């Protein structure tokens, strides 16, 4: 489900619900580290101000097989593939985080913009390199996953995959348009020429998504499935955005809940009755998360963590926390509350619920472990991440081959390179966590886990 309506709007535009007591957590430090993480995921020629210095240049010839420059961008998680759908979602969420909570980022705002620009520079290339085409992936994941090697050593095929009128992908194309459009707002004041370039590319890519409809999973098959299949498909009726449906998760695959929360701002701000149904369905989503209400249907662990699935569960926790805080901001700014049957849920209630989730991630949980690498006294040491788990190219210059790298995957030693700020997949439904490099479901970080958390941490760093 694409961010179709988000695109338009961006362009035109503890279950105790008493107030949370002051937290002892340093949200400002966590915010800085959550942004720093993205430097560890960089592909391409690294800048002179690169702070995670154990990384080196990689993927410099990406796109050359098609005579285009597709260097740059982000590796999505612990592998060396550049997947377009999660990268576009990551970009959208970084931009939205800055739009909503940029004023709270204080000294981190430039780092946040830099993290965003690293992605938008790549998406601009992907969108403009060839007329009538959108490049959506670099590298065959089936081949990449047969190796355990540093991005600086990659020798697996760097195949390039693109969408055309004959091979459409409305889902990833519209999400790319949303990412570019949202980012254009971020750079409106700091770099108006760049902002205009992003906006024009967004318009063109959205036009491509609308004119050539279809799911990119159907067009690209096994190179995107089962890795980042478009399971939810795409919304062929952009006029309603599925407003008649209630949906209870928000992720790189399904963005309807996020779109409805954003559209609700228009209803609250302008009292536009035509948008009221979006507010009603946004309320349904919010109510489903709140224990004790008649609409409650979410699952929480015994320790209080929102639980959606066994693999990379924290992606749903960070995205949900972001929506809770964004909706709370809209309710506070424009007046209003959420009615859940006979219960009234206020903005303060939503902030309290989101704080519990964020605090859990940062270490206030039964295991007493921070799920953000480098934050707190105890955090995962064996994360499922090639670059982090192998010796840095700066300390071991000899090439480590595809098969030789597996000895590091299976090693019991801690990762030699600390991927500061990385948030891993997280614990199971009983709050159990295995700090095991082979348990990728729990120990692998991803850009789309961190991106929504940037906004949430900015909010709490300013309201502690």
Automatic annotation (TrEMBL):
Enzyme class (EC, first level): hydrolase
BP-aspect Gene Ontology terms: cellulose catabolic process
GO molecular function, one term: cellulase activity
Any matching Pfam family: Glyco_hydro_9
Chain segments annotated as transmembrane: none
Reactions catalysed according to its record: Endohydrolysis of (1->4)-beta-D-glucosidic linkages in cellulose, lichenin and cereal beta-D-glucans
Active site: 384, 435, 444
Highest taxon in the source lineage: Eukaryota
InterPro entries on file: 6-hairpin_glycosidase_sf (IPR008928), 6hp_glycosidase-like_sf (IPR012341), Glyco_hydro_9 (IPR001701), Glyco_hydro_9_Asp/Glu_AS (IPR033126), Glyco_hydro_9_His_AS (IPR018221)
Family designation: Belongs to the glycosyl hydrolase 9 (cellulase E) family.
Protein name (record): Endoglucanase
Organism: Asparagus officinalis (Garden asparagus)
């Amino acid at each position: 489900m694409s961010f179709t309506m988000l695109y338009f709007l961006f362009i035109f535009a503890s279950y105790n619900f008493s107030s949370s007591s002051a937290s002892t957590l340093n949200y400002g430090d966590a915010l800085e580290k959550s942004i720093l993480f993205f430097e560890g995921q960089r592909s391409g020629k690294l800048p002179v101000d690169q702070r995670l210095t154990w990384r080196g240049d990689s993927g410099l010839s990406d796109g050359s097989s098609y005579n285009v420059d597709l260097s740059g961008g982000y590796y999505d998680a612990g592998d060396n593939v550049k997947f377009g759908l999660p990268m576009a979602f990551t970009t959208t969420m970084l931009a939205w985080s800055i739009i909503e909570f940029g004023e709270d980022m204080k000294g981190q705002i430039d780092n946040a913009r830099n993290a965003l620009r690293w992605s938008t520079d790549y998406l601009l290339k992907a969108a403009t390199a060839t007329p009538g085409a959108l490049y959506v992936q670099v590298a065959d994941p089936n081949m990449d996953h047969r190796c355990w090697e540093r991005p600086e050593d990659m020798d697996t095929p760097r195949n390039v995959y693109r969408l055309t009128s004959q091979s459409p992908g409305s889902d990833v194309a519209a999400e790319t348009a949303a990412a570019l459009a949202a980012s254009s707002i971020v750079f409106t004041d700091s770099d108006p020429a760049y902002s205009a370039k992003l906006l024009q590319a967004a318009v063109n890519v959205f036009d491509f998504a609308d004119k050539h409809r279809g799911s990119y999973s159907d067009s690209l098959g096994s190179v995107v499935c089962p890795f980042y299949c478009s399971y939810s498909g795409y919304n062929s009726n952009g006029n309603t955005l599925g407003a008649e449906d209630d949906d209870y998760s928000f992720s790189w695959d399904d963005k309807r809940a996020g779109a409805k929360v954003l559209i609700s701002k228009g209803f609250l701000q302008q009292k536009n009755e035509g948008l009221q149904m979006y507010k009603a369905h946004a309320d349904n989503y919010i109510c489903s998360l709140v224990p004790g209400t008649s609409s409650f249907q979410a699952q929480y662990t015994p320790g209080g963590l929102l639980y959606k699935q066994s693999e990379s569960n924290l992606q749903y926790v960070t995205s949900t926390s972001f929506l809770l805080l964004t909706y709370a901001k809209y309710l506070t700014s424009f007046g209003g509350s959420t009615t859940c049957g006979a219960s009234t849920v206020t903005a303060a209630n939503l902030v309290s619920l989101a704080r519990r989730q964020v605090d859990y991630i940062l270490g206030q949980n039964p295991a007493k472990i921070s799920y953000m690498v480098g934050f707190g006294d105890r955090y995962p040491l064996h994360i499922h991440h090639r670059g982090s788990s192998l010796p840095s190219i700066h300390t071991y210059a000899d090439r480590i081959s595809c098969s030789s790298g597996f000895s590091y995957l299976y090693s019991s030693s801690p990762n030699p390179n600390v991927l500061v700020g990385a948030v891993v997949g997280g614990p199971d439904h009983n709050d159990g966590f295995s700090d095991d490099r082979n348990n990728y479901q729990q120990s692998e970080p991803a850009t789309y886990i961190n991106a929504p958390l940037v906004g949430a941490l900015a909010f709490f760093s300013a309201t502690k």
